[in-house]
Amino acid sequence: MDKLRWTPISFTKVTLSDAFWVPRIDANRQHGLEAVYQQLKRTGRLDAYALDWTPASNQPQPHVFWDSDVAKWLEGACYSLMNHPDPVLRSRVEDVVDRILSAQAEDGYLNPHFTVVEPGKRWTNLRDKHELYCAGHLIEAGVAHHRATGDSRFLRGMQRYADLIGREFGPGEDQRQGYPGHEEIELALVKLYRHTGLEHYLELACFFIEERGRSPHYFDLEARQRGEDPKVYWPKTYAYTQSHRPVRQQREVVGHAVRAMYLYAAMADCALETGDRALLGTLRSLWGDLTAHKLYLTGGIGPSRRNEGFTARYDLPNQNAYAETCAAIGLVFWAHRMLQVDLDSRYADVMERALYNGMLSGVSLTGDRFFYVNPLASGGDHHRQAFFTCSCCPPNINRVLPTIGEYIYSRKGDEIAVHLFAQSSVEIVLSEGSLVLCQETDYPWDGVVCFHFEMDQPRALTLKIRKPGWCQQSHIYLNQDSEPMDCQIERGYWTIRRTWQPGDLLRLQLAMAATRVYAHPRVSSDVGRTALMRGPLVYCLEAVDQGVPVHTLSLPRSTPLDSQFEPGLLGGVVMIQGTAKAVDEDAWGGNLYQTCPPILRDVPFRAVPYFAWDNRAPGEMQVWIPEAVDGE
Amino acid sequence: MDKLRWTPISFTKVTLSDAFWVPRIDANRQHGLEAVYQQLKRTGRLDAYALDWTPASNQPQPHVFWDSDVAKWLEGACYSLMNHPDPVLRSRVEDVVDRILSAQAEDGYLNPHFTVVEPGKRWTNLRDKHELYCAGHLIEAGVAHHRATGDSRFLRGMQRYADLIGREFGPGEDQRQGYPGHEEIELALVKLYRHTGLEHYLELACFFIEERGRSPHYFDLEARQRGEDPKVYWPKTYAYTQSHRPVRQQREVVGHAVRAMYLYAAMADCALETGDRALLGTLRSLWGDLTAHKLYLTGGIGPSRRNEGFTARYDLPNQNAYAETCAAIGLVFWAHRMLQVDLDSRYADVMERALYNGMLSGVSLTGDRFFYVNPLASGGDHHRQAFFTCSCCPPNINRVLPTIGEYIYSRKGDEIAVHLFAQSSVEIVLSEGSLVLCQETDYPWDGVVCFHFEMDQPRALTLKIRKPGWCQQSHIYLNQDSEPMDCQIERGYWTIRRTWQPGDLLRLQLAMAATRVYAHPRVSSDVGRTALMRGPLVYCLEAVDQGVPVHTLSLPRSTPLDSQFEPGLLGGVVMIQGTAKAVDEDAWGGNLYQTCPPILRDVPFRAVPYFAWDNRAPGEMQVWIPEAVDGE
Questions:
Q1: pLDDT tens, B131-176?
Q2: Considering the domain boundaries, does residue A30 fall inside one?
Q3: Is A592 close to B293, i.e. CB distance below 8 A?
Q4: B140 and B262 co-located in one domain
């Protein structure tokens, strides 16, 4: 499988200069990281590392998942430092690192909750207590810190922790054959392996993955060891943690959505590193189930609040959608890893969908207010918050935004794959010299993308450019040619093998019209409804833009959709507008019910990108708009 | 206000012989009362009166609302005995009465929970503990038992309890100025007053009503006396118990729907008995709020599971509707009482709507399986049950069905008002002799109703016949006249003052076509949708009758609606059928989303009365059907 192995080009090599992502990355750096840091401080998450909590103290009790919040913020801060050095943030990072390291035990263990709240109970409840999950995030932060600062003290500490875990868990008789209730450490161990080159970290990641769901079930065993009945388990099924059967026998995405995404992403990592084709087959089945049955138009996933996760096929309610921000981020992680192991535009299409819609809706334009839950309709009572009691999403946003550049390109030898479109330049070092590939574009507002090749001399190079699934008409022009190129398409990528000349210009024209989208007839919530998309962006109707209540609007199929860039709106967005039908409330009278049909009248409507909703006055919102009924 | 005072004609005077209600009354007698009795026994509700529960015993702990379940069953059984003597049921009734009386304390107090589970805590938590609510149901059962058997031993016991309550509660310094968290005793005390003629029961009912919501708030006081913080109260507002302000200052229906209905019904009783016009004004405001903003098409009320009650105006979700069966019954009680104090067909319209739809959906055709919650749409996972942990609804059905006859007529002197249509005869004793008024009709399946006057000699009598709000064309013919009568309409009742001749025949023709109904534009759940009604009945699409999934159906506005009586279906119902549009799933392909609109094709649909749904194979159900989108 080695020939399939692609590698993302690091965000540190990609210089974004676009009007879309740069302001978001800046807002995250200037406001998001600051806001989350203040919340970590305010809520006691940082003070927890002093290990001075006692039942008698007035301090908040360190929670089992607090470390993950701190670690994700730290990871995000380090990524931010890598492209944007900042002495103030750097010293804050070092202070947090000091705090964390001060709480590490002699043997490498690191978890304030199990140190002060439940001492002596290490590793006794992997099912519920997030211990390995927190360890994973700390390890990821350790790698990020080393990359950002070159200082290895934090990484060394986290390796000591990873080594402890490696002694504790494994196939040996004196080891635990356990695995985390909330996956994450698998991703972290692969990252640690890639950073250090130490194979035992990869082996441990694979061990956790392979052990998952085997019989006898580890969560049964550990529950009995705690003196508990394993059947007393609120989700009632191990599908909640994707451990209902061994992972290689799983064919349907189930359970808690974030857990599922982190597992599948780690499985993709392992498939890539080990060349395991069978594992890749499992992942393709899971991917097929997700994308054919369980994916919101926005890339949001996990419709149910009850399990924060998956339910039945086609169960995609709009107003009650859970669609956690972290789950969309997890989907980005999984899709990105699938791209490296199994390059195909269908993964990039979903990655783009989740990035621009379901993930980005999770953060305000100012970068410091967040959605945990991302419904596709609202009666007006859903609003962004500064933080949450369970606050995984804000620091997850913190760590994704600085690394957006990483999702644009992958490379395999002298092949370059372009997954996303964004004005940027990337330096690519080839065997015989380097080149700079520049994208010039107003994407996602405009579908023209120009690729410039900046180099000293001609270079043979295969360029693979994703043909977006949303696009119905597209052409590529080379230099001044008036006829489009006749490009081969390989698994959704235009593939151009050529010796490029200095100054070569490739112009991609993606027709980007506002388009109606429809959902599968089994999605009962969306029958009779249409959604508007333009390019990769899902649109919505927000109350503040309409003259009438959003729920009274319907859209005749014949209405022309007019797109217009509004520089002053929501940081500059393309709005879609046209004429909708609205139930005329004035003509109705006072009755709650009547036999005379409501009168519809023409009203203007304006739709804005879904990611940007709830940044102005609160109110109703709908992605899926009823299509207007026939004749009055 | 005495001139406004109407009196219902007792169900014991009305002999129903129709094909609609008689089978339901029979099913309740033969199966419903039996099934609920067995559940009362099985769950320990009857054994609780042995008062031998201890914390160490293995018996189920007597719950604070158990007495109400037993009492409502007993009341229903007694009503059934009144029209259908049955020695087996009678002896069962006496056994239950014996059990209850054996648990009564010396001073008249009667409540197993507070006797064995929380001894010494009588009257310490009126807000939450249903003590006065249970007392009310016991008192109603006492009156019913006396009416059914002529034996006063149970009634005497319940009067002793009422007298104890009368000493405990009242305006005196040595009395408690409290009132129940769950209204009901007010209704019971008025009933007891009417049955015994003892005015202090009416006064106590009025005291409870007037005291409600005054400052300082009684629930605050008693919470502090319990050493609790009154603010620690899960509903967060006293609106939950309609005690957020004095009742005369209330203008909007709020809180727990059953509680609200029982309160308003008792207020109507008091207004009627005391001639209090101000109280009637309050009730009219509350009625207006309910019927203009908060009433399901089915007569169901209280959309929210959270408070089992009311929310904001126009908040009428379909699939998530709570619409408890008891709340529809409570609405029938309130509407019926409003009719007596303020005769107007708008009350009877709502009473009929709730009886035939929201109440009747609560019980299976077999009489022994129940809905607690009555949604207007289902994905297929909502089914009738034999009983519930909180099982107020089944015995409430038990006591309403035997008394259906009581809702048909009211009388004031020589005026007779006909509220409902059902094949039946009623004996009416006038000052100078009696007459029998017969209705001959196939209502609700057919709109022709013939009234026969059977009497020895001519009688002057004012007959008031309700002009149903659902009917768009109606005529009344006298005897063989070919021209319809030109009747005066007074507050929605055709009013015919006449000296009737023996053998007179009045023929009412109500056009009863299947009709599309629409909801106010502010009801966001119903925008773009239509519901089908025929006569008083709301219809629904049930999966078992369709060839395609219910949620894929939409109804073009132009589709003719064909009604047909199906004798073999659901005990004999009129079905509505026609041609709908369905999204063609076969033509769709496998994608979850696509830009090509779904193809609609013509399919036959069949709609059945809402009350009869979930009596066959489980599946999807919808009352509000999308109207088809324009041109393919």
A1: 999 999 999 999 999 999 999 999 999 999 999 999 999 999 999 9
A2: no
A3: yes
A4: no
pTM metric for this prediction: 0.91
Q: Of these residues, B326, B392, B393, B438, which one is catalytic?
A: B392
- For chain B, the first-to-last Cα distance in angstroms comes to 61
Contact assignment for A527 to B593 by CB distance below 8 Å: no
The CATH code of the domain that includes B460 is 2.60.40.1180
Please tell me the distance in Å from B524's CA to the nearest CA on chain A. Answer: 6
CA nearest neighbour of A556 among A610, A472, A470, A625:
A625
Helix (H) or strand (E) holding A132: helix A131-149
Q: How many domains does chain A have?
A: 4
The whole-number pLDDT of residue A433 equals 82
> B594 and B569 share a domain?
yes
- Whether A207 and A350 share a structural domain: no
The closest CB to that of B583, out of A297, A521, A626, belongs to: A521
Of A624, A630, A631, A632, the residue nearest A551 (C-alpha)? A624
Q: Do A520 and B595 touch (CB under 8 A)?
A: no
Q: CA angle B500-B501-B505, nearest 5°?
A: 80
In a domain, A458, yes or no: yes
Domain contains A195: yes
Contact B631 A554 (CB under 8 A): no
Co-location of B154 and B276 in the same domain: no
Using alpha carbons, select from A441, A247, A474, A520 the residue that is nearest to residue A345: A474
- Cβ(A251)–Cβ(A286) under 8 Å? yes
A346 three-class SS:
helix
Helices and strands of chain B, counted as H and E runs: 15, 23
Note down the domain range covering A168.
Answer: 43-212
A58 and A184 housed in the same domain: yes
Q: What is the pLDDT of residues A234-277, one digit of tens each?
A: 999 999 999 999 999 999 999 999 999 999 999 999 999 999 99
DSSP states along A63-119: PTTHHHHHHHHHHHHHHHHHHS--HHHHHHHHHHHHHHHHT--TTS---HIIIIIST
Closest by CA position to A395, among listed A27, A93, A88, A32: A32
Among A134, A392, A393, A487, the active-site one is A392
Using the structure block, give the residue that is written with the tokens 């699409």: B541
Residue bearing tokens 């609202």: A378
Considering the domain architecture, whether residues B87 and B202 belong to the same structural domain is answered as: yes
What tokens appear for A261 in the block?
């995404």
**DSSP for A169-206, written as a single string:** BSSSTTSB----SS--HHHHHHHHHHHH--HHHHHHHH
Q: At what angle do helices B153-168 and B199-211 cross, to 10 degrees?
A: 40
Chain A CB contacts of B556 below 8 Å: 630
pLDDT at A3 over 70: no
Query: Pick from A444, A476, A510: which residue ends a domain?
Result: A510
Please state at what angle helix A66-83 crosses helix A131-149, rounded to 10 degrees.
Answer: 20
Look at chain A and count its residues. 632
Assess whether A197 and A268 both reside in one domain.
Answer: no
Q: Which of A297, A524, A629 sits opposite B629 (nearest CB)?
A: A629
| Distance from C-alpha of B443 to C-alpha of B465, rounded to nearest angstrom | 15
Residue B308 among the catalytic residues = yes
Give the pLDDT score at A631.
Answer: 43
Residue B585 lies in a domain: yes
CB atoms within 10 A of CB B381: 9
Q: For A533, name the nearest residue in chain B, comparing CA atoms only.
A: B595
Query: Which one of B519, B552, B558 has the shortest CB-CB distance to A592?
Result: B519
Q: Measuring CA to CA, which residue among A397, A390, A294, A407 is closest to residue A11?
A: A407
> Token match 């012989």: residue?
B17
How far, in Å, CA of B496 to CA of B498, rounded?
6
Yes or no, beta carbons of B590 and A292 under 8 Å apart: yes
A270 part of the active site: no
